């Protein structure tokens, strides 16, 4: 059983930055950030695998960076140059299986409760 707890969400103006954290308990091989805006489907934002592979959605490439501190068992998402369209609830997800595609929602068995990110123009 893996438990996930996100933190770091908030409100920021366009062009600003936020860093999300996800504290995990238990062993994981793949972790990712997903987001869901009101009225829209949940979408994969960034994922990372135990071998160091990373994947990003096209909409965030060059602006967001996913990383993890293995010693602290914590996942991060550094978000720079934020845009109003980045406004969403952000969820941390994890799985203890090895996946090649890191941004496929149904592959993740464990989910956090979410943290809200609001970007104003």
List the helices and strands and how they pair.
Layout: E1 3-7, E2 10-13, E3 18-25, E4 30-36, E5 43-49, E6 54-56, E7 64-69, E8 74-79, E9 88-95, E10 110-111, E11 115-120
Parallel strand pairs: 2-11
Antiparallel strand pairs: 1-3, 3-8, 4-5, 4-9, 5-6, 7-8, 9-10, 9-11
Q: Compute the gyration radius: what is it?
A: 13 Å
Based on CA inertia axes, which overall geometry fits? globular
Any low-confidence stretches, pLDDT <50, length ≥5?
none
Question: Which structural class fits the helix and strand makeup?
Answer: mainly beta
| Total number of beta strands | 11
Fraction of residues in β-strands: over 45%
Cα end-to-end separation: 40 Å
Q: Bin the helical content.
A: under 10%
> What is the ordering of alpha helices and beta strands?
EEEEEEEEEEE
- Mean residue pLDDT: 96
Main sheet: strands, sense, barrel = 7 strands, mixed
Number of H- or I-type helical stretches: 0
What does this structure look like?
By secondary structure, this protein is mainly β. It has no helices and 11 strands. The strands form 2 sheets. Strands 2, 4, 5, 6, 9, 10 and 11 form a 7-stranded mixed sheet that branches. The protein has a 4-stranded antiparallel sheet with strand order 1-3-8-7, with no helix packed on it. It is globular, with a radius of gyration of 13 Å. The relative contact order is 0.33. The mean pLDDT is 96.
Supply the key terms:
4-stranded antiparallel sheet, mainly beta, 121 residues, single chain
């Amino acid at each position: 059983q893996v438990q996930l707890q996100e933190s770091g969400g908030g409100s920021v103006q366009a062009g600003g930055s936020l860093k999300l954290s996800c504290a995990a308990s238990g062993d994981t091989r793949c972790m990712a950030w997903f987001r869901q805006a009101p009225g829209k489907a949940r979408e994969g934002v960034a994922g990372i695998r135990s071998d160091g592979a990373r994947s990003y959605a096209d909409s965030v490439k060059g602006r967001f960076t996913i990383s993890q501190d293995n010693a602290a068992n914590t996942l991060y998402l550094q978000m720079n140059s934020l845009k109003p369209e980045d406004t969403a609830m952000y969820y941390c997800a994890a799985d203890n299986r090895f996946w090649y595609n890191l941004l496929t929602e149904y592959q993740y068995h464990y989910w956090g409760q979410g943290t809200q990110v609001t970007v104003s123009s």
